[in-house]
Amino acid sequence: DAKTTQPNSMESNEEEPVHLPCNHSTISGTDYIHWYRQLPSQGPEYVIHGLTSNVNNRMASLAIAEDRKSSTLILHRATLRDAAVYYCILRSEYGNKLVFGAGTILRVKS
Amino acid sequence: DVKVTQSSRYLVKRTGEKVFLECVQDMDHENMFWYRQDPGLGLRLIYFSYDVKMKEKGDIPEGYSVSREKKERFSLILESASTNQTSMYLCASSFLQGPFYEQYFGPGTRLTVT
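The joint structure predicted for all components is written out below.
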């Protein structure tokens, strides 16, 4: 599975946008970019995924670089409930498993 | 609302005991997974199942077995628990194969083996 690189931690103020970066320079043409997050004392939850185009859903937006070697998860207005570990994961076309790295710990200040 | 439930949130067992961790999903998913999560090592796949009675080894299957007799239920079995199996165990499920199907996780079982 191709590898992703994320910052260890980031901090944001409540009600402000947050941009969480992910580098995946060895991504293959058929790899999908997935984001999951894990709130304290809970299992991971799916946030968003994309292949080439930018994606929006009710939780977040995903901006994918034109060369696909990096992506950014955007939380438009961070709340205290968004404090979590955010994982950027590449999934191959036929891959079943999720390979979780260390992720980015997001802290949100009130 | 989709749901994956795990039989216990916390479990304490003694070395050498046989341990069963149960997972149930109500979404009619074909795939079910067992992961363990340890500090500094992230989540690692133990086993997954893509159909009733079918299973495949993940990255760290040693010391574990699984059972899937019904579509909605996937059990993880520690035949003889050891202290190095103290961990957070997470069950997940998803539709079929493919990179566009998200996995839904349960809340986890924190197992301590003493």
